[in-house]
Amino acid sequence: MDAVRLSANTASMCPGDTHKFSAAVLGENDISQEVVWAVTGQQSADTKVAKDGTLTVGKDESADNISVVATSAVNNKVSASVKIQIVHIIIDFGVDQVAIVVKCGGSLSFEAHIVGINLSSDAVTWSVSNNTSKATSISQEGVLTVGEDEKAATLIVTAMSVADPTKSASVNVKVEGSDNAKVVGYSVGLSDMISLNMYTYVPEKFLSDAGANAVFTLADGTVTQQPLSEFKKASYNGGNTVVINTKMVPAYITRSVTMKIVGSDGKESEGFTYSIYEYAKDYIKYATTETEYQKALPLVKAMLDYGAYSQLFFGVDASNLANYDRVSNLKLTEGNVEQTSCDSVFNAIKNEETGTLGNEELIYQNISLVCESETSMKLYFQNKNNLTLDQIKEKYAIKVYDSEGNVIPDDGCEMQVEGEKFWIKIKNLGPVKLSSDYTVEFTSDAGTQRGTVSPICYIKKAMKQDDMNLQNLCKAMYLYNKATLEYIGQ
Prior knowledge:
The protein is of the alpha+beta class. Helix content is about 15%, strand content about 40%. Strand 33 and strand 34 (about 445-455) form a beta hairpin. The longest helix is centred in the last third of the chain and has 21 residues, at about 470-490. The protein is elongated, with a radius of gyration of 34 Å.
């Protein structure tokens, strides 16, 4: 046995790299080729060499040089080693990121300073991303040019090491003078009706445009729009924003909404995508460490349960329930719906149908709830004489009063005739109003008849039904109403 020969005499590697070395044992006769591998000089516990000669350099390796040694398994006095230079690269732009601003049609020069040991090259490759304009580019000399038609609010400029392409650094570049809107914060409306609120910085170009619209695209491709002028303005972290919001059906709270602003000239802002589910999941995470989030935590979880049981009842995304974490598949809520019995809900609800709902010609039959972004209550009557809607309104003065005795206006109350049925729909009932009483009044030449009913009466009746999905949905609605009242202190 004469010596051990390695496949390389020297090598350069970066933290995180792997490389397989081979060894040959030289000598006469039939010599064993088995060697024992070892690494020396390392600072990281993750820098190791495997039995097959594969060296892994730890991502946190701080040593400048290490050695890999192969020793004959038969004679430990015969060995060979290879010196490994560890290349350390840090890319520093040397600029204050907060101060980087460029206008549409403008340009800006960047420099990247590479600081490292054992460098084979200090060159970098430049790139720009997040741009919407094909005219936005950056040269390999680091000169950024922004297109006149650039719509992005922020560009990302990246310098990547030529010596080690896994090493890079990026800076954000704010674009001014473009058709940009920027969502700077989110909130969710829970106690009134389920809505996603986007606190949005809106450029003057759109604010002064009477024809500008906020356009919403749902996950199923449905597109709706609303005039930008109809949304309220609010201060957010000291800045002036427009609170752009859209109502959400409980069964759809796991689905994303994309919002963009479109001017009357057809120019668009970039789109912003978010979901009530993502907001709620983040809220639960923050509530574990920050006390300011804990007050509304039961309400947020009750909303997720309401969404989940709406999904199950209506068959919407039932494999992706709102009260489960999509990544860990762990439940985000405590299982209050399952743990709450139908009897306990039935006994807890004290509201009753009282008085006379309807009359001899319009005979009251039943109640239902319509689960949209806001819940609506529908009261069904048998239209005994098949009157048209105009005939009903001519014969009867029908008024609906809220729990405070106020007449509900026409935009909050709808009436229709469908075949042999006449129905009254009381709209825009957020969770706080589910336990409120509503009075329906019919006045004719024969006199006045009044009856009182509450949306929660439907929930009470559902507790005696045989439909488990309906019962669970109604229990979730009841618990959502209860959490809402506790949140607002009622």
